[in-house]
Amino acid sequence: MNKLLLALGVSALTPLALAKPVIVTSIKPVSMIVAAIAGDKAEIQQIVSSTASPHDFAMRPSDLKKIINADTVVWVGESLERFLEKPLENAGKEESSIEWLALDGMALHNFAKEHHHDEDEAEEAHDDHDAHGDHEHEEHGDHEEHGDHDEHEGHHHDGVDPHVWLSPDNARILAKAVTARLVSLDSVNAEYYKGNLASFEKGLSAKDAEIRNALNKVNKVPYIVFHDGYSYFEQHYGLSHAGEITVSPERKPGAKKVAEIRHEIQENKVQCVFSEPQFSPAIVKTLLEGSDVKTAPLDPLGSKVKMGTNAYFSFLDSLSGQFLSCLG
Predict the structure, then answer these.
(1) What local confidence, expressed as pLDDT, does residue 134 receive?
(2) How many Cβ atoms sit within 10 Å of the Cβ of residue 201?
(3) How far apart (Å, rounded) are the C-alpha atoms in residues 122 and 134?
(4) Range 62-78 average pLDDT
(5) Parallel, antiparallel, or unpaired for β 72-75 and 22-25?
(6) Is the pLDDT of residue 250 over 80?
(7) Is 134 helix (H, G, I), strand (E, B) or coil?
(8) Cβ within 8 Å of residue 131, ≥6 positions away
(9) Is 4 part of a structural domain of the chain?
């Protein structure tokens, strides 16, 4: 009888003992880095689908449930995922979440000041200011360490380019933060998570060097991107960004902007205009009518990358390959 009771007791405790930490992520690039550390010891639940864009995403009841039940929510930050700010606060998950933009040691880029206009400004007035010359990021978008952001209240990063996952250096910082959180949530598997971090850092250094070597062959070739969101990747690898079709993906460029881009294409001898799979390529086709300029999709979210512990490396490979295919 005692043996039976003991067996029943162990059986009742087993599901609790085997429960994995539940990590809710905002977008796929965040999931990639979490997966590299979590392996098969934690459950990852992503909010924004791999084919959607966080720029115009709307929360669903099922997403709210994920947040409520999460052990930790890992997100980029309010300047990219504004839709998460209130739900995190309402669910009492704000303090326990990992906000990538707010991590110590992050090297952040600023958008040019003229990019930030009130939503009710006329589009043509906006167009008067958002044209770019070569490397305007470098002239107006200086790097900032997170610790210097005293002008921002709380976790707000007004004017900061939130596409931080495009920097291998910033990816390393998130990986360390995720490791620390998983170790605190699941100390039994602490060495497993730390080992995964070591493997990730080693693999990242090798992949970074490999991509730099490949992109060095095309880093003088001018191109235009769909939206102004690649500065981390471009500056890290020294690419020749010549402009963008739109500053914000949700804003369609007006006739004046289209004319300006066509002028930029001719003036800068642009070799490629990139589209994005998350948005209609119609505007790119309109821009390139009657020209010999090449076009190709550039996927900043890695929508077709297979998830797994090496997903972030595959994402960097995919993105660099997309650049090479059109610039080479």
Answers:
(1) 37
(2) 15
(3) 26
(4) 96
(5) parallel
(6) no
(7) coil
(8) 243, 257, 260, 264
(9) no
Structurally, the chain folds into a number of domains equal to 1
Q: Which two tokens stand for residue 123?
A: 């589009």
Pairing of strands 107-109, 143-145: antiparallel
Contact 45, 66 (CB under 8 A): yes
- The CB density around residue 233, as the number of other CB atoms within 10 Å, is 24
How high does pLDDT run on average in the chain?
83
Eight-state DSSP code of residue 274:
E
Contacts of residue 147, defined as CB under 8 A and 6 or more positions apart, other chains included, come to 104
Only one residue has tokens 């102004």, namely 228
Is residue 40 within 8 Å of 46, Cβ to Cβ? no
Q: Would you give the DSSP letter of residue 173? A: H
Span 165-215, pLDDT tens digits: 999 999 999 999 999 999 999 999 999 999 999 999 999 999 999 999 999
Q: Hey, what are 156's tokens? A: 């707000």
Angle of helix 190-215 relative to helix 28-38, nearest 10 degrees?
Answer: 130
- 11 in a structural domain: no
Q: How far is CA 4 from CA 1, 7, 8, 17, 60, in A?
A: 5, 5, 6, 20, 46
Q: CA-based angle 22:24:90, to the nearest 5?
A: 105
CATH number at residue 58: 3.40.50.1980
Residue 208, in any domain of the structure? yes
Chain centre to alpha carbon of residue 234: 14
